[in-house]
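Workshop exercise sheet. Pairs work together: one partner reads the sequence aloud, the other fills in the structure field after running the prediction. Swap roles for the next sheet.
Pair: D.N. / O.F.
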Amino acid sequence: MEPKTVMTVPLYLDRRGYLRAVDRNYRGVLVHRACWEAHYPLHGSFHVHHINGNKTDNDMSNLAAMAPKIHRRLHRIGPLR
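Structure field:
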């Protein structure tokens, strides 16, 4: 059995404390969104919420997709309209 090649991706913390991965175009991709989208579709402008509040814990059991209005309500930020 041949060993599989594993590609390493540079990670860094952005100014807001989220983990980002550098893609082929040298853009920072939010790791929690990439993790979610690897398993489920992310509809429209839905947000991916860290359930335990730890922005670096990107385990699928700690992520939940939700509408921006609901996400803002959880964090009590921005207009709720």
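Discussion prompt: Residues 11-75 form one domain. What would you look at next?
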